[in-house]
Write a structure and sequence with these properties.
Blueprint: H1 3-26, H2 33-53, H3 60-81, E1 84-86, E2 89-91, H4 93-110, H5 114-137, E3 142-150, H6 156-166, E4 171-179, E5 182-191, H7 193-205, E6 209-213
Antiparallel strand pairs: 1-2, 3-5, 3-6, 4-5
């Protein structure tokens, strides 16, 4: 493979990876401009180098596929490191997905498919920019918790589960204990804000429930 072809592929990888990295930088994400450029140009260089050194009429295709698989496996560890769990919420999934997508982009560039790479870059940026607004407009569920002081141990649990089911809510991490001379039932659930308010309203109206507390 001529050196000029490799330089062209690196330049294309820098521009396309930089376009995605710029969007991440403007969104104040941890994997920003330099990270995406380094990943895109680095993986493109590996792909182009494998095409120059390893390719042969007999086994070039399989060697290139092995290099691509190795690059994707390696970026998986970096993506996993960008995912964290805080306060019951998982963060960094979009960042990890972007790094994985940029790696795929770099392999396309390294293989020399520039038109496909340009279209793919446009799709990634469209997803990150346009679909963010759509995602923001969709009501999100949050995790809530409640501690109920119940008067009727025989009927209250089934009544509480039935009320939650009426609102399409599944109770999790349920527990019962005796305290303050009464039975306390605790649970957590995932719901939209409106459903959470409706659930608490119906629970407060149930005769079997004496008191509702925040955990």
């Amino acid at each position: 493979m001529p050196i000029t072809d490799i330089l062209i592929r690196l330049a294309v990888a820098l521009v396309l990876g930089g376009a995605i990295g710029l969007e991440r930088e403007l969104s104040n994400k941890p994997a920003g401009l330099r990270t995406n450029i380094l990943i895109c140009t680095g993986a493109a260089m590996m792909m182009a180098l494998s095409g120059m050194v390893l390719a042969s009429p007999s086994n070039g295709g399989s060697d290139l596929l092995r290099v691509a698989a190795g690059v994707i496996t390696g970026i998986g560890f970096m993506g996993a490191g960008s995912i964290i769990r805080a306060g019951g919420h998982v963060q960094g999934l979009t960042t990890a997905s972007t790094l994985w997508a940029v790696t795929a982009l770099s392999l396309i560039v390294g293989a020399g498919y520039y038109v496909v790479a340009a279209v793919y870059t446009a799709l990634i940026i469209l997803t990150l920019v346009a679909f963010r607004r759509i995602e923001a407009a969709v009501p999100k569920k949050s995790t809530y918790g409640a501690i109920l002081k119940i008067a009727d141990m025989d009927k209250a649990p089934d009544k509480i589960i039935a009320i939650a089911a009426k609102h399409g809510i599944r109770l999790e991490s349920m527990g019962l204990k005796r305290a303050e001379g009464a039975v306390l039932m605790s649970f957590a659930f995932l719901a939209h804000g409106k459903r959470e308010r409706e659930l608490r309203r119906d629970l407060a109206a149930a005769a079997e429930i004496v008191e509702i507390r925040q955990p």
